[in-house]
Amino acid sequence: MLQVAVTGASGRMGGVFLEYLEGQEDVQGLAVSSPQASVATAGAPENERLSCLEKVCSGQVPDVIVDFSFPDATLAYAVWAASKKVPMIIGTTGFTMPQLDRLADTLHSVPALLSPNMSLMMNLAWRMTANAAAVLPNNKVDVEIIEKHHRDKRNAPSSTALKIAQIVAEKRGWSLAEALRHNARWGMIGPRPQKEIAISSVRGGTLISEHSIIFAGLGESLEITHRSQSLEPFARGSLRAARWIVKQPPGVYDMLDMLGLQEVLY
Ligand SMILES: NC(=O)c1ccc[n+]([C@@H]2O[C@H](COP(=O)([O-])OP(=O)(O)OC[C@H]3O[C@@H](n4cnc5c(N)ncnc54)[C@H](OP(=O)(O)O)[C@@H]3O)[C@@H](O)[C@H]2O)c1
Predict the structure, then answer these.
(1) 230: Cβ below 6 Å to ligand 1?
(2) Is 149 one of the annotated active-site residues of the chain?
(3) Catalytic pick from 55, 84, 150, 153?
(4) Burial of 194 per CB tally in 10 Å (0-12, 13-18, 19+)
(5) In the prediction, which pLDDT does 261 show?
(6) Please, what are the domains in the chain?
(7) Would you say the CB of residue 12 lies under 6 angstroms from ligand 1?
(8) Is residue 37 lining ligand 1, measured as CB closer than 6 Å?
(9) Per-residue b/e over 94-114, b at no fewer than 16 CB within 10 Å?
(10) Across the strands, what pairs with 213?
């Protein structure tokens, strides 16, 4: 029986993931929730989170932790995971660069997988984006990214959209910081600069995540779009990642490692 502790259990994604685990005969999901902590937003005490984790696991160490919570909470759970040598899957998004560095430092002694998107198809879309960006000429083809999410999403742009932008920047040999533009066209802005990767973020109602990458050329264009109709693809990908990570040596991985997609394409 694979014991999976789910942190952020009271959230939308944590709830769907736990429900998905209930349908698996060989997996036991342990809900780790600290409702008081979540009300207190980012300042919630670390020890409160950890005591919830200890209580749920009742002294027993789970085989793996799957986290869909909030950056500060994730960092606290990661410290616990590293101290107990528990592998960790992190689906939480919205980390700053310093937070990502701290996570990597904290987790270097355990197997950990971080991905802003656990869906198999979205990971494939990233690889397709890398191929298109490597082949299509920088000076003739513009790249625009449109992402849509529900009205309660906390961060913008989505980390998935940022990852797309990062892939394009890498393939084009551009600095992401210089080329990235977010949602800010208004008035007499003049012609589009060539060295630009633009992201537009749409938020509303119960929209479920959608990402489109548009390669706009001269007289033709190409679009790669990923749409999720439910959160189940993320749950499915997360369980696959959990089963995989428990067999890996210590290190920080992503879904492309698990899927063997790092090497097969450009
Ligand atoms: N990688 C992927 O494929 C993927 C897919 C979907 C969502 N996500 C990401 O997963 C995260 C959770 O998404 P969600 O839609 O489930 O969000 P949500 O409904 O807002 O739930 C977040 C949960 O995090 C916990 N939390 C801990 N500290 C918190 C704090 N300071 N403020 C707010 N919540 C806190 C709470 O659970 P407890 O009270 O139980 O601790 C809360 O219910 C987000 O970062 C989202 O972008 C990733």
Answers:
(1) no
(2) yes
(3) 153
(4) exposed
(5) 75
(6) 2-118+231-264 (3.40.50.720), 120-227 (3.30.360.10)
(7) yes
(8) yes
(9) bbeeeeeebbeebbeebbbbb
(10) 145, 224
Distance CA 42, CA 134 (A): 39
User: In this structure, are residues 34 and 48 in contact, taking their beta carbons and an 8 Å threshold?
Assistant: yes
Q: Are 245 and 89 in contact (CB under 8 A)?
A: yes
Q: Does the beta carbon of 138 lie inside 6 Å of ligand 1?
A: no
CA 14 to ligand 1: nearest atom = 16
Give the global pTM. Answer: 0.88
How many A from CA of 12 to the centre of ligand 1? 7
Backbone angles phi, psi at 12, to 5 degrees: -55, -50
pLDDT tens sequence across 216-251: 999 999 999 999 999 999 999 999 999 999 999 999
Beta strand pairing call for 221-227 and 210-216: antiparallel
β partners of residue 224 = 213
